Amino acid sequence: AYAAPPPLKVIVTGAAGRTGQLVFKKLHENQAFDVVGVVRTEKSAKKLMRKVNCGLGQVIVADVTSELNVEHDNYIRGLEEADAMIICTSAVPQIIKRSLFKTLINKFFRRQVKPPLFRFRPGQHPEKVDYEGQKAQINLAKNIGVKRIVLVSSMGGTDPTNFLNQIGKDENGEGDGDILIWKRRAEKYLLQSGLSYTIIHPGGLQDTPGGQKQLVLDVDDVLLKNKERQISRADVAELCVASLTVSAQKNVAFDCISVTPESDEEIVSAEDALVAFLTLGKTCDYSH
């Protein structure tokens, strides 16, 4: 009798985040995968377990910016024998309420309006989370024998002047920002790691249902010229899952957005969109 292959064991880091949670849920609901989520706090772990209805053994609490780069049995338990890792961690900015108040006052009096300022929580800024934290995760993957990494990053990394790099800086340009610069440095580290990889650069992330728009995949930020350059987090999650199987034999980095389909146009699945893109032989250029 035919025996189904054993499920692929996958670690999802940042599993309590808005994108990570969707990736974790999709893998949890698919019998082809055995998934373990890594979250930063006990509170996040409980919330994830409630939302996804998974067991205690499927969630590990660890701060990837510090703990996972220490070789210690406690951090590894539950992660052994994983085949792949999907990295969904990212520094998350918080709005500075005082600057938002100033913006609203200036708007009301029709003065020159400056956009509100953002900051990162102490120890949770881009260099720490998006560079050092992702390096730590890549090193951990190598140490425990993971063969493949899917890294969820961001579009805009080819342009150091991208406005996202200003987040976390003050009016004089000082502070802990440069999120896309640090993300790109982590991507380059992954390229040099010797591990098999897929790097996904989504456009603006939206909390909308997946499968509603047509996915468009390309490279090197050319999609930033598009009028529509957002993508549903659910579609990004589908691309992560597809990357574990469809692009498993290829190292590839790509950008992705979704566009409104023509009225009679059939929506292509994330898996089919990725298959079609891979036949083109394109990947992002990291030579500069």
Description of the molecule:
This protein is of the alpha/beta class and 288 residues long. Helices cover 32% and strands 20% of the residues. The chain contains eight helices and twelve strands. The protein has helices spanning 18-28, 42-52, 73-76, 97-108, 126-143, 179-191, 233-245, 270-278; strands at 8-13, 33-39, 59-61, 84-87, 93-95, 118-120, 148-152, 196-202, 204-206, 214-218, 230-232, 252-259. The strands form three sheets. The chain has an eight-stranded mixed beta sheet with strand order 3-2-1-4-7-8-12-10, with helices on both faces. The protein is globular, with a radius of gyration of 19 Å. The chain starts with 7 loop residues before the first strand and ends in a 10-residue tail after the last helix. The model has no long low-confidence stretch (mean pLDDT 89).
Structural category: alpha/beta
Question: Total helix count?
Answer: 8
The total strand number stands at: 12
Helix-residue proportion = 25-40%
Beta-strand portion reads 15-25%
Rg measurement, Å: 19 Å
The coarse overall form would be globular
For the largest beta-sheet, the strand count, sense and barrel status come to: 8 strands, mixed
Q: Give the overall pLDDT as a whole number.
A: 89
The poorly predicted ranges are none
Lateral strand order in the biggest sheet:
3-2-1-4-7-8-12-10
End-to-end Cα distance, whole Å, is: 53 Å
**Element-level helix/strand string:** EHEHEHEEHEHEHEEEEHEH
